[in-house]
Amino acid sequence: MNFTSCIYLLLIILTTNHFILSHSENCNPDDKRTLLQIKKEFGNPSQLSSWDPTIDCCNSTWLGVDCDNFNRTYRITGLDLENINLPKPVPIPPSIFNLPSLNVLYLAYMPNLVGPIPPSISKLSKLNYIYIIQTNISGEIPYTLSQIKTLVTISFNSNKLTGPLPASLSTIPTLAGIAFNDNQLTGTIPESYGSFPPLFTGLLLSRNRLSGKIPASLRKLNLADVDLSHNAFEGDASMFFKSNILTYTITLGSNSFAFDISKVGLSKDLNKLDIRHNKIYGKLPERLSELRYLHKLNVSDNNLCGQIPMNTRFDASCYVLNKCLCGSPLPACKT
């Protein structure tokens, strides 16, 4: 082979290698096909134009897509989609459940996302965090969620979910919190919720149609944040007040709770206490005046009596409409 032929052959090899390298990609081909199918099931919205089949889906240009580049598996681990303007009402794309390495699923602010959360969600066996927020998803919370033993947070705020709270959620060993605010859930809090794992610190169920008494088993929980406001609960809720644990917020307003507030403990870390519009009675604990982080307080419209603790720094609207509560900022107590 002469010199000219060798040079020609070398150019062919270099050109071929460059072509192969320029067209190689890290994205797992199965996951890429699944993402393109998800795009199709969403109705090919314009915001997902970056989901281009000619581009590597692990090069950080695909909107809302996270890959496992650290461990170099290049599987899809996160799907973070919000404010996607779906061209017409569609259900949750069933192909989402064909992403076996998904850790985070975030679907938010999509009014055209409708229909139920399918039971096949349990196929996401590595899921840690699921957020479906402010959509028109409806139907019951699927019991199959409890089959995902890796879940840490479940947030389904501001949808149209109905039916009961799934009792089996307490069997998820890693669960740290649930947020089902602003739905149409009915029934009572399951007795099993007292058996949530030690990591569980967030119980957020406000603005539903839940009712009944709080199970005594919930006394075993150490909640940092609890919000049961705007439901039809009744009876005792004193189990949420503890002086020896880290508690940030207790929001129980607009129910029919009735218990003696003078006998509860208050965490030194409390920054919000809202018990307005209930039937709570007794005298406000003196410890209220010692809570340096407390910046939101409302105890109005209850059956409270006695002197308001000194130095509580809140205006009269936070205390009005009680049976016989008195002292600054309300009128002075009668001697």
From TrEMBL:
InterPro entries to which the protein is assigned, alphabetical: Leu-rich_rpt, LRR_dom_sf, LRR_N_plant-typ, PGIP
Main location: other
Gene name as annotated: 25493340
Repeat recorded as keyword: yes
Keywords: Leucine-rich repeat, Repeat, Signal
Keyword Signal recorded: yes
Domain (Leucine-rich repeat-containing N-terminal plant-type): residue spans on this chain: 29-68
Family per record: Belongs to the polygalacturonase-inhibiting protein family.
Species the sequence originates in: Medicago truncatula
Domain of life, per lineage: Eukaryota
Signal peptide: 1-22
Subcellular locations according to the entry: Cell envelope
Pfam families per UniProt: LRR_1 (PF00560), LRRNT_2 (PF08263)
Protein name in UniProt: Polygalacturonase inhibitor protein
